[in-house]
Design a protein that fits this description.
Blueprint: H1 2-10, H2 15-21, E1 38-41, E2 50-53, H3 57-63, H4 68-94, H5 98-124, H6 145-153, H7 156-184, H8 188-211
Antiparallel strand pairs: 1-2
């Protein structure tokens, strides 16, 4: 697994890094076991760099290729995060408690940049129609239109209580989706993003439960 992760981390590197890390076939010390060129793939923090035969780079790209689960997750999370931003926009206007407004700002600050990242990823990895026509309303944690109408009409303490209830459920749904793609996806970038979503949203669930 560590070898595969090192390979996957190499895929986005620039040509300059590849040139800097490659060694010619004349050097038996730096080359692969068969005397061919090798590439230095930087390790994660705390890990040593790995020396990888250059002919395995293409194989790494294939191993890390996004599958249908990756594409569906990224497309779905764009919509899922989008609804969270809609709710946080309402919190700016109608929340009564300062702590509720603050958690809304925290959520928006975290999810708006992620939406941009996901949109860029989907543009680069459109798949074969995967994720198109998906019933986003059925995704875990999504608030119904009736729930959103109630939130739009609520004010003060009533708004705070409903916002926290809906957002906690929304975050729990996002965690469920992230856990699913960790089990079914293939792309390491998606894996890293989903892992980050879990960490961030579990933390925010804890904060909101203290306010509810």
């Amino acid at each position: 697994m560590r070898h595969r992760r090192a390979l996957a981390s190499l895929v986005p590197l620039t040509a300059a890094l590849l040139l800097a890390g490659c060694t010619g076939g004349d050097s038996s010390d730096d080359a692969g076991g068969d005397g061919g060129a090798s590439v230095i793939a930087p390790g994660k923090p705390g890990e040593e760099a790995a020396t990888i035969p250059a002919d395995e780079v293409d194989e790494a790209r294939g191993e890390d290729r996004p599958n249908a689960a990756d594409v569906t997750y990224m497309r779905g999370m764009i919509e899922h995060h989008g609804q969270a931003v809609v709710m946080t926009d309402l919190a700016k206007k109608h929340a009564d408690a300062k702590d509720v407004r603050r958690i809304g700002e925290r959520i928006a600050a975290g999810q708006q940049p992620e939406i941009a990242v996901m949109e860029a990823w989907v543009e680069e990895n459109p798949g074969d129609g995967d994720g198109h026509g998906h019933d986003h309303a059925s995704m875990p944690g999504m608030a119904s239109e009736a729930d959103l109408d109630r939130l739009r009409a609520a004010r003060g303490e009533e708004f705070d209580a409903l916002f926290l209830k809906l957002m906690i459920a929304h975050h729990e749904g996002a965690v469920t989706m992230a856990e699913e793609v960790l089990g079914e996806g293939n792309n390491e970038y998606v894996e890293q993003l989903a892992t980050g979503v879990i960490a961030q949203q579990v933390s925010e669930i804890g904060r909101m439960e203290k306010l509810a």
